[in-house]
Design brief:
mainly alpha, 5 strands
Length: about 170
Amino acid sequence: MIRFPIPAEELTRFRGLLPPTKPKSPYAFIFGHGLWNDLDLQATLDWLDTILETSISAAPWLQPNFFSSSASRTSPGKRRESGLWPRLFLTPNAAGKEKPDEWLRSQGNKALMIFEEAVGIEAGRRGVEHLGTWNMSIQSNMFDGVHVDLKGNLIKAMMVLNWLNLLEVEKF
């Protein structure tokens, strides 16, 4: 599901992955976002909303009853009356010096920083945690100006694992 609108066959395949009844262990939803839409915020939000709506329609047990007032905006897996639905959105890493000049206006570091900040705000409004990777990757090695090296990807993976470790799965 890497473009919007999301093709029907991809949504059908996604629905098939979700159990219609609550499983014994929670599912964590981790959304990665690349440069597929030139950092178009509205297309990104439409994409995310479609995935969230599809998730709830396929797995009604994910439907939040309410968010606890004791849960902060940044607490992983916001508490709900019926458990938790952990969701994390990763935005793209910084642009490297090898990024082709024709992409600097739409996908350069300034555009990436503005996009990351806006997505963080909008994801939070939807109850989705946000992990921005621009700052952690600004000094990373990027062989093509876009993709971080193995060390950069390992750092991202460790950040996601740390987030997963913070989830209060006993609340599920």
